[in-house]
Amino acid sequence: MSAKYHRVLPLHAPAISVPEGLEARLRDRLRIAKLRTAPRTFTNRLTLGLALIGPGLLVMLGDNDAGGVVTYAQTGAAYGFSLFLPLLVPLGFIAYLVQEMTIRLGTVTRRGHAEMIWKRYGAFWGAFSLVDLVAANILTLMTEFIGIRVASAVFGVSYLITIPLAFTFITGILLFLQYYSWERISLFVAALNLVFIPLVLSAHPDWSAIGHTFVGQGWKLPGGLLSATFLILVSANIGTTIAPWQLFFQQSCVVDKGLLPQDISASRRDLMLGVIGMVLVAAAIIALAAQYLHGLPNAASLHDSDVLTAIGSRVSRTAMIIFALGLVEAGLIAGIVITASTAWAIGEAFDLPRSINLGPMQALPFYAPAIAGTALAAGVLMLPHVPVGFLNLTVQVIATVFMPAAMLFLLMLLNDRQLLGEHVNSPLRNTLSIGVMVLLIVCNGLYGLVTVFPKAF
C-alpha cells in the first residue's frame, strides 16, 4: 500500500483505503457533524462556532499585512483625521462583498479558485491568472519581510537572523502540520493583529476629531482629489483591502477545510468578524498616525523605520516596541496565508495532490513552488540595500491594478448557474460587484494620468 494511504475501518463494512488528505478532512467533518447533533447547550454551540471559523478571519486579518500597516500609517501622517477614516467602512463592505463570493464558490463546487479558472476558461486564462498571482504574491511577501526587517532593529536583533527565522516558521507549519493545527496556529498569530487597538487607546487620540470625520467635517486634502499623493494613497488603501491573493486563498481554504453549502451562513459570520477586525485595526493605525505623525516632512512616503522612529519620539518607546511587534505579527500572518495561497493555486492549476493535510513527502511538488517563492522574497530582503519605501507603496498599488481582472473571472464563475445552481449571484450582487470593478479601473486610470501628465491636473 502506498505511503500516502491509510486504512479506515468503518463499523460493519470491509476495510477501505482513502487518500491521507481526504481522511484528515473526513475526521474534521465528523467532528463538526457530532457537534451539530450534540445537545444544543451554550458550550456545544460555542464549540461548533469556533470549529467553523478560520478562512474569513485569516484572510481579513492577514490582509492587514506589514505593507498595509505602513500604508495606513502613511495615510494618517499625510492627511491626519480626514476622509480616509470613514472611507474604511465602505472598503470593509467591498471586502465582504468580494470575499463572500469565494465562500459560495468554494463550498458548492469544492474546487479552488485557480482550478475553476483553469478548467472553466482554459489553459491560457488559467496561466494568465496564475502568473499574475504568483508575481504579485512574491512582491507582497517582500513587503512582509520588510516589516520584519525594520522591526528587528527595534529589538537590537539582526535581520539576518529574524528573516530566516520568520521564513522557517511560515514554511515549517505549512509543511509539517495538518490543516486543523495549521489553521489554529495561524488564527493565534492573526489574533495578535489586534494589538494596534489597545495601542491607539493608550495613546489617547482626539476622539472629537475622529467623530467629525464621519460627518464630513475636517477633511483636509492638500492638492485636492486629483493630486498624485491622494490618488496613490487611495489606490494603496484599496490594494491593501482587496487583493487577488485573497480570492485564491479563501476559496482554497474553504475547500481544504472541507466546508459544505450548509456551512455558508457560518462562513459569512466568520468573514464578517474578520472584516470588522480588519477595519478596526486599520482605523487604529490611521488614527495613531494622524494624532502623532501628521505634518511630518514627506509624510506620504515615510518608510517603516521612519514610522517607528516617529512613534518612539512622539508617543513613547513602549508604543514603538508594541508597534514593532505588530509589524512582525503582520508580516508573519500575511506570509502564512500568502504562501498557502501560492501553494494551493499552483497545485490546483497542475492538478497536483493539494492539501495541507498531506505530509511533505506525499506532496512535495505542492509545497515546493510556494516555499521557493517565499524564499526568493526573503532572500531579496536580506540584501543590504533594498528600496523598502518605494517597494511598499508600489506593491499595494499593483494589487489594485491586478484586481479588476481577478474580479472579472470571479463574477463570471458566480453567474454560472450550471456550477452554482441556486447559489449564483443575485442582480444586486452583480451590480455592486461591477461597481467595484469600475471604481478600481477609474482609480487606476486617474493615477496613471496624474503620473504621466502631472502638470495637466
Account of the protein in words:
- With 457 residues, the protein is mainly alpha-helical.
- The chain has one domain: Up-down Bundle (Amino acid/polyamine transporter I).
- Helices cover 74% and strands 2% of the residues.
- It is built from 19 helices and two strands.
- Strands 1-2 form a two-stranded antiparallel ribbon.
- The chain is globular, with a radius of gyration of 22 Å.
- The N and C termini lie far apart (70 Å).
Low-confidence stretches: 1-9
Strand content: under 5%
Named at the architecture level, the CATH assignment is Up-down Bundle
Domain count: the total is: 1
In this structure, how is the largest beta sheet organized?
2 strands, antiparallel
| CATH structural class | Mainly Alpha
Helix content: over 70%
Number of helices: 19
Radius of gyration: 22 Å
Note the run of SSEs as H and E.
EEHHHHHHHHHHHHHHHHHHH
Shape estimate? globular
